Amino acid sequence: MPQTHRLAARRTLSLRELSSEPFLVFSPEHTLRIIFDRVCADASFLPNIAFEGMDVATLRGLIAAGLGIGLLPPAPARFAGVVEIKLSPARPIRPLGIGWIADRYVPATAVEFRKFVVSKFHGE
Fold first, then answer.
1. Pairing mode, if any, of strands 86-87 and 48-53?
2. Pairing of strands 12-13, 86-87
3. What pLDDT digit, counting tens, does each position of 80-111 carry?
4. How confident is the model at residue 124 (pLDDT cuts 50, 70, 90)?
5. Predicted TM-score (pTM) of this structure
6. How distant is the alpha carbon of residue 119 from its chain centre?
7. Of 14, 28, 82, 109, which has the fewest CB atoms closer than 10 Å, so is most exposed?
8. Three-class DSSP category at 24
9. Angle 42-46-47 from CA coordinates, rounded to 5°
10. Where do the domains of the chain lie, and which CATH numbers do they carry?
């Protein structure tokens, strides 16, 4: 949320506390938007969507400008004008996948990485 937001000093927030806020979100076809819609439905509210976009930097910039709040993955570095607050009691989970083409050359490092990922996360 913008660092000037009335709730910006909080360490955690529930999604229900944010239900009346204007949200800046990804476009409907984006995987993170699908997760956002499900999380809002689970919290039993229909979000007030102020803007839809496809670029996380654009969304963060609009949040910094005070145009709304967002539910985004953590930023790799601090984004000026934006504070990140954890959701409580639970954070949404973003599924990730790994794939490869069976009959194509795969470098040894990629093979080892694939083995690691499959052994660590297979079936989760």
1. unpaired
2. parallel
3. 999 999 988 766 777 777 888 889 999 999 99
4. low
5. 0.77
6. 26
7. 109
8. strand
9. 105
10. 12-87 (3.40.190.290)
